Amino acid sequence: MTTASRVVNKEPTVRSYLRERVEQAIRDLDYRPNMAARQLSSMRSFTIGMIVPRAGVGYIPRLIVELSWILMGLISSSIATSESEKIQLP
After folding, report:
1. Which one of 29, 40, 41, 80 is most buried, by most CB atoms within 10 A?
2. CA–CA distance, 89 with 81 (Å, rounded to integer)
3. In this predicted structure, what is the pLDDT of residue 22?
4. Degrees, nearest 5: CA angle 44-13-34
5. What phi, psi does 14 have (nearest 5°)?
6. How far apart are CA 37 and CA 41, in angstroms?
7. How would you label 11-30 residue by residue, b for 16+ Cβ within 10 Å and e otherwise?
């Protein structure tokens, strides 16, 4: 279990032959990391809040949508996983 965790977290201390075996098992089992579990163990929620005067007035709805798309791009490129995505292996 520890080796698998180190591989998933991309720690450099795993021997290459073990890393390959674990990565193959991840692909074979169609492993998907649980973002809720990661958030609990890291004590980070990766949540951003916005306080706006009136969400349905003027430019605010468009601003919320655009910021959401930008943030999803930043998050997916830095975290690269979510509950609905497969883990990306090199």
Report:
1. 80
2. 11
3. 94
4. 35
5. -90, 135
6. 6
7. eeebeeeebeebbeebeeee
- pTM of this prediction exceeds 0.90: no
Q: How far apart are CA 51 and CA 90, in angstroms?
A: 38
Residue-wise pLDDT for 3-29, tens only, equals 998 998 889 999 999 999 999 999 999
CA neighbours closer than 13 Å in the CB half-sphere of residue 8: 17
State the Cα–Cα distance between residues 80 and 35, nearest whole angstrom.
Answer: 11
Q: Which residue bears the tokens 């980070």? A: 44
Nearest to 13 by CA among 82, 81, 22, 85: 22
**DSSP-based three-state secondary structure for 2:** helix
**Of 25, 12, 15, residue with least CA distance to 87:** 25
pLDDT of residue 27: 93
